[in-house]
Design a protein that fits this description.
Elements: H1 2-27, E1 32-37, H2 47-56, E2 60-65, H3 70-76, E3 87-91, H4 92-96, E4 104-107, H5 115-119, E5 126-130, E6 155-158, H6 161-165, H7 167-174, H8 176-181, E7 183-186, H9 199-208, E8 217-220, H10 229-242, E9 247-250, H11 266-272, H12 277-287, E10 291-293, H13 300-305, E11 308-311, H14 316-320, E12 327-330, H15 333-339, H16 344-347, E13 353-355, H17 358-370, H18 376-386, H19 393-407
Parallel strand pairs: 1-2, 1-4, 2-3, 4-5, 5-6, 6-7, 8-9, 8-11, 9-10, 11-12, 12-13
Helix pairs in contact: 2-19, 10-17
Length: 408
């Protein structure tokens, strides 16, 4: 019995290796970019770059995901995964077997130590990280138990001046030798390149959601932490906004939309309590026909459609700034107790109204709709600090990756 079980395990292992062996033969002699998505819900941050490379380069692109997220990623990705011969999806375990050797590894998680980046630390692969949000919370790269999270990278894509002056400044103070070793690239924030305020796009998005384009539109986009507004008071906030004469789009963080069940990660359960926000929103939508849960991970269409954004500390607030429209921040003091009050996530709220109750929030929304010019000077000042290469960051990132691949 034991011998039979071992034989089956060996057979399963060999069968699992066959796709990787075939891919290894296929990529022989080609330039390879590997993109590691620890959370596939962040795909909208990198997919514009990959689309650009497919159109302007002949490299092979490997998208590395966790095995439990592979099928969901394939279903939800906007990339032509099935038909494009230079796009391949591999799971972490197969990639870490090192049967396929990339020239460049790009990841989206510089705030945590990457076992995938660590595995390619022999100098043959250029490992570069980019952040997945505009607000610099000054918790990345600082001594909070995570240690030197950038020590496993060779380069860092910077989204704007604020990224040089926040966490990276703190990192340089604590790890000066590693900071000097890092290559820094002023890329910008590719995810926001498609933010083009257009009445036609706005109307198309709203009609697609079954909402009336002639009505003003509010987007509520909170972050996911247990001390943020959704977990603290989310249902009341949504119902309060729904009571106004507006369209309401609820754009939730991908972590808030993870499906409850035995496979839910422990850290997600700790933050969200395992709530099923899809089911909660379905109930609210039945009672409030002006409410819609945003069906796509990509926030850009919903930001384009919105006249006012309501959020807490979500990075979409700083993306919305690029549209120069009013923002209402729901105050979350317990979250600031946790993450501090010196980073852009806290100080950047000066570009909008800060409210601490549902009643104040509704009044703030009314004021913003009546006078969208309020706070424009502060929005402009902060916008100039946020992004390099606005509108062209995707091309800059793509050309930078091309140059790095040619060097390997």
């Amino acid at each position: 019995m034991r011998i039979g079980a071992r034989v089956r395990r060996v057979g399963d292992h060999l069968r699992g290796l066959l796709p990787s062996l075939r891919l290894r033969h296929e990529v022989s002699g080609r330039r390879v970019l590997a993109v590691h998505l620890l959370e596939t819900g962040l795909r909208e941050h990198v997919e514009p770059i990959l689309q650009w490379l497919l159109a302007h380069d002949d490299c092979l692109i490997l998208i590395v995901v966790r095995s439990g997220q592979r099928e969901e990623f394939i279903r939800s990705s906007t990339l032509p995964l099935a038909e494009h011969p230079r796009l391949k999806v591999v799971v972490e375990e197969r990639f870490l077997a090192k049967l396929i050797h990339p020239g460049v590894l790009l990841t989206l998680h510089p705030e945590t130590r990457s076992r995938v980046a660590d595995a390619w630390g022999d100098g043959r692969v250029f490992r570069v990280a980019m952040q997945h949000g505009l607000p610099d919370k000054e918790v990345f790269f600082v001594p909070d138990g995570r240690g030197d999270t950038l020590g496993c990278y060779d380069g860092l894509f910077l989204y704007g001046p604020a990224s040089r002056n926040g966490s990276l400044r703190l990192y340089a103070q604590r790890y000066p030798d590693n900071y000097r070793r890092l290559q820094l690239f002023d890329v910008g924030y590719p995810k926001t390149d498609s933010l083009k305020s257009s009445e036609a796009v706005r109307n198309e998005v709203l009609r697609g959601l079954g909402l009336a384009p002639e009505r003003p539109t509010i987007c509520y986009a909170p972050t996911y932490q247990r001390t943020a507004s959704l977990e603290w008071q989310g249902s009341e906030i949504i119902r309060g906004l729904a009571s106004l004469d507006v369209n309401l789009i609820v754009k939730l963080h991908h972590v808030s939309l993870k499906r409850p069940g035995p496979d839910l990660e422990k850290w997600v359960m700790a933050e969200t309590g395992g709530k099923d926000w899809r089911a909660i929103l379905r109930t609210i939508e039945r009672n409030h026909p002006n409410v819609r849960l945003a069906p796509s991970h990509d926030a850009n269409p919903y930001l384009i459609a919105a006249d006012v954004l309501v959020t807490d500390v979500s990075g979409v607030a700083f993306e919305f700034l690029l549209l120069d429209r009013p923002i209402v921040f729901f105050d979350v003091p317990e979250l600031f107790d946790q993450f501090g009050r010196t980073g852009l996530h806290f100080t950047g709220r000066s570009c909008g109204q800060i409210v601490s109750s549902v009643e104040q929030m509704c009044e703030g929304v009314r004021l913003a709709l009546a006078n969208p010019q309020i706070g424009r000077d502060r929005r402009q000042e902060l916008r100039d600090r946020l992004v390099y290469n606005p509108g062209t960051a995707t091309e800059v990132a793509g050309r930078t990756l091309q140059a790095l691949m040619r060097r390997r």
